[in-house]
Amino acid sequence: MSILNNLSTLQNRRDEVPNQLLAKKIVEKNDKKAINELVENLQNKNKGISGDCIKVLYEIGSVKPALIAEHAADLIAALDTKNNRMQWGAMIAIDYITLEKPELVYKSLNKLAQITDKGSVITRDHYVNILIQLCTIKKYAGKIFSLLNEQLLTCPTNQLAMYAERSLPAINETNKKTFLRTLSSRLDEIDSDPKRKRIEKVIKRLS
């Protein structure tokens, strides 16, 4: 029986519980055949099915990224759709497998950046996570930090505190000065006292 029958859409459910339960079952069984079927249906003409498939895949990736990493190229290709749910779902999945397939993700950064520029807040959040992870890898750090810094300079102020905190593992003696200068330059833009204090705490930690 096709595992698609377990998806929320084909159970006439509007919640994500069936998708989450399916992901858990696949992880427990290391069911690569089921993963193959999910990947094959990322192009399903039924948007409910394709959306559920990417949801299950990134739920799997959040727990056991190695299980979906071999399909990295398919996940990157899924960004080409105009379906917003598919775009941010694919970006989430790519975020989870970045350290499994860093070279492929690195080579795809132009596409990821283009999608992010036109995408949702969720898409941007996970793109920034991808940059942070790549920045922790020595051979990519120098080139990637400039992309990360660009996001810190231009992102909505609502996201800046979170991005600053998440970026800490990628900060070293080479890029610390630029990172601190970027955060300091944006403090006056922050209307929320709690968020400003979070950024100030990051600055103090590194100063």
Q: Which range does the strand content fall in?
A: under 5%
Strand pairing plus helix content: what structural class? Answer: mainly alpha
Straight-line distance between termini: 59 Å
What oligomeric state do these chains adopt? Answer: single chain
Shape type: elongated
How many individual β-strands?
A: 0
Could you walk me through the main structural features you see in this protein, from its secondary elements to its overall organization?
The chain is 71% helix and 0% strand. The chain is mainly alpha-helical and 207 residues long. Helix 3 runs parallel beside helix 6, helix 9 runs antiparallel to helix 10 and helix 9 (121-135) runs parallel beside helix 11. The N and C termini lie far apart (59 Å). The mean pLDDT is 96.
Q: What are the defining features of this structure?
A:
207 residues; 13 helices
Structure in a nutshell:
By secondary structure, this protein is an all-alpha fold. Helix content is 71%, strand content 0%.
Which helices and strands occur, and which strands form pairs?
Elements: H1 17-29, H2 32-40, H3 47-63, H4 66-69, H5 72-77, H6 84-97, H7 102-107, H8 109-118, H9 121-135, H10 138-154, H11 157-167, H12 176-186, H13 193-206
Helix pairs in contact: 1-3, 3-6, 6-9, 9-10, 9-11, 11-13, 12-13
